[in-house]
From TrEMBL:
Origin organism lineage: Bacteria, Bacillati, Actinomycetota, Actinomycetes, Micrococcales
The enzyme's E.C. designation: 2.7.2.8
Family: Belongs to the acetylglutamate kinase family. ArgB subfamily.
Chain sites annotated for binding substrate: 72-73, 94, 199
Cellular localization per UniProt: Cytoplasm
Domain (Aspartate/glutamate/uridylate kinase) ranges: 33-279
Site (Transition state stabilizer): 37, 260
Protein name, per record: Acetylglutamate kinase
Length: 312
């Protein structure tokens, strides 16, 4: 047999083995909803953007209902600079003025979302974009921060307090893939809309949506391999952790990981089956984490009855 023929057969066998390994996970999660937070380097690298769209279409054809939630920090920063809109940061967080909020809405819903919907729909008529404003899907209250022990007003920044799932449910029932941008109408303490629109953290919004939808998984793409017990020691990567263990670790994590791991913790505490932190810098890493026993990132699972990687 010619050498290239043997190579082709070997490659085909490895592909078949990968499909067989994925089969139990496909059988387990077919018919369930997974919420995937799209962010990090996967949003700005063309190869990774295309790979992410392929992964989302694969999930749909595997019988899973993917719901994508996205932010767009780098794109927002670039547009603010282009328009000459200065940004003030307090405690490491951007103060969002009305002028900046106009840019946030324009970039998230008008550019980032349209690009992603277009990539997914290059494989077929699958995806529909929507905002947290649509049908008041995401409802938020205004929040600030504490700097040097004093409260600081961050402007039009909020956190999700309620999720209405009817719009997303309707799209899923129609066989579509919702792509949700994370801006939300503001509601006051009495639950009435104020007319303002707030910028909300995409990680925590994805966690809230996963909880409201009763998702089987929350998957958050980021720019690290996963959660480390002793960052920056790469050998301390945690492949699986329980919600109780994460609760103890959370206050000591790096600031950039706190909203991501906090979203995972809240989701699992609220009944989402598992939450995953996945390195979005590697093509198709999301599929490896979901459909292989070893996985490639960090999964958060309920403390009981199981917490092993092969029990995903």
């Amino acid at each position: 047999m010619p050498e290239n023929t043997r190579t082709d057969v070997g490659l085909a066998q490895r592909k078949a083995e990968a499909l067989i390994e994925a089969l139990p996970w496909i059988q387990r999660f077919a018919g369930t909803t997974m919420v995937i937070k799209y962010g990090g380097n996967a949003m700005v690298n063309d190869e990774l953007r295309r790979a992410f769209a392929e992964d989302i279409v694969f999930l749909r054809h595997a019988g899973i209902n993917p719901v994508v939630v996205h932010g767009g920090g780098p794109q927002i920063n670039k547009m603010l600079d282009t328009l000459g809109i200065e940004s003030e940061f307090r405690g490491g967080l951007r103060v969002t003025t009305p002028e900046a909020m106009d840019v946030v809405r324009m970039v998230l819903t008008g550019r980032v979302q349209r690009d992603l919907v277009g990539l997914i729909n290059s494989h077929g008529p699958y995806s529909v974009g929507m905002s947290g404003e649509d049908g008041a899907t995401l409802q938020a209250i205004r929040t600030g921060t504490i700097v040097d022990g004093l409260p600081v007003d961050l402007g039009l920044v909020g956190e999700v307090t309620r999720v209405r799932t009817d719009q997303v449910d309707s799209l899923i029932d129609a066989g579509m893939i919702p792509v949700v941008s994370t801006v939300a109408p503001e509601f006051d303490a009495e639950g009435e809309p104020t007319g303002a629109v707030l910028n909300v953290n995409a990680d925590t919004a994805a966690g809230a949506l996963a909880t409201a939808l009763g998702a089987s998984k929350l998957v958050i793409l980021t720019d690290v391999e996963g959660l480390y017990s002793a960052w920056p020691d790469k050998s301390s990567l945690i492949t699986s952790i329980t919600n109780d263990e994460l609760r103890e670790m959370l206050p000591g994590l790096e600031s950039g990981m706190i909203p991501k791991m906090g979203a995972c913790l809240d989701a699992v505490d609220s009944g989402v089956g598992q939450a995953h932190i996945v390195d979005g810098r590697e093509p198709h890493s999301m599929l490896l984490e979901i459909f292989t026993a070893a996985g490639v990132g960090t999964q958060v699972v309920p403390a009981a009855p199981t917490n092993q990687k092969d029990q995903k």
